[in-house]
Write a structure and sequence with these properties.
Blueprint lengths: L1 E4 L9 E4 L1 H9 L2 H16 L3 E4 L1 H20 L3 H7 L5 H15 L4 E3 L10 H8 L3 H12 L4 E3 L12 E4 L6
Parallel strand pairs: 1-6, 2-3, 2-5, 3-4, 5-6
Helix pairs in contact: 1-2, 1-3, 3-5, 6-7
Length: 173
C-alpha cells in the first residue's frame, strides 16, 4: 500500500475510486482539507481526472450528512433523535438530498454498478484485509473493475497491498 497526497494525484490514465469522506470534506468545506477535496472534484468535473464511485458510497455519505445536520440542529445524539421521536425537520432531509444530487451531477464522475458476483470475492477480501464489511465491498468493487487508486482519508485501506491511497490529510508517507 502506498499513500500519497490527494492534491498530487494527476494520473490521467488510471481511474480513482472516491470514498465518502472526500465528498463529505468537500461538501462541508472543512478547512484546508475541504479545499483539497473541492479542487480534486473540480479536476474530475473538468475531465482531467477519471474518477468513479458507487451507490454504496453515496448511501454512506447521505447517512453521515443526515446525522451531522441533525446533530447540529438539535444539539444532541442524532441516532437517539431519529429512534425516539422520528420528528426531524423536513428541511434537513431536503438539504441532504440536494447535497447528494450535487455529487451525482458532477460531470465525468462515473457511478459504478455493483454486480451481484461481488459477493463471491467479498468473503476472501474480508478475511485477507480485515476490513469492515462496507470497506470490503469497496475494495472488492475496485478489484472487479481493476481500479488501483482510492481517494480516501480512511487508513483502514492501508492493509490492501495492491492499491494506492490518495489522502486529503497531511499523513502521506
Amino acid at each position: 500500500m502506498k499513500i500519497n497526497s490527494l492534491s498530487l494525484f494527476d494520473n490521467v490514465n488510471d481511474y480513482i475510486y472516491i470514498d465518502a469522506n472526500v465528498f463529505h470534506f468537500a461538501i462541508r468545506g472543512i478547512g484546508h482539507v475541504g479545499d483539497i477535496c473541492t479542487n480534486f472534484l473540480r479536476k474530475v468535473e473538468s475531465g482531467y481526472i477519471r474518477a468513479v464511485t458507487s451507490p454504496l458510497v453515496l448511501d454512506e455519505l447521505m447517512y453521515k450528512l443526515l446525522l451531522k445536520l441533525i446533530e447540529e440542529e438539535y444539539g444532541s445524539n442524532p441516532l437517539k433523535i431519529l429512534r425516539s421521536s422520528r420528528k426531524v425537520d423536513k428541511s434537513i432531509f431536503e438539504r441532504v438530498a440536494n447535497m447528494i444530487a450535487t455529487i451525482v451531477r458532477i460531470k465525468n464522475l462515473e457511478i459504478l454498478d455493483i454486480p451481484k458476483s461481488i459477493i463471491y470475492i467479498m468473503p476472501s477480501n474480508f478475511k485477507r484485509y480485515q476490513l469492515l464489511p462496507r470497506d470490503t465491498l469497496h475494495i472488492s468493487l475496485m478489484e472487479i473493475y481493476d481500479i488501483k487508486n482510492i481517494a480516501s482519508a480512511d487508513t483502514d485501506y492501508d492493509t490492501v497491498d495492491w492499491i494506492t491511497r490518495w489522502t486529503p490529510l497531511e499523513e502521506q508517507t
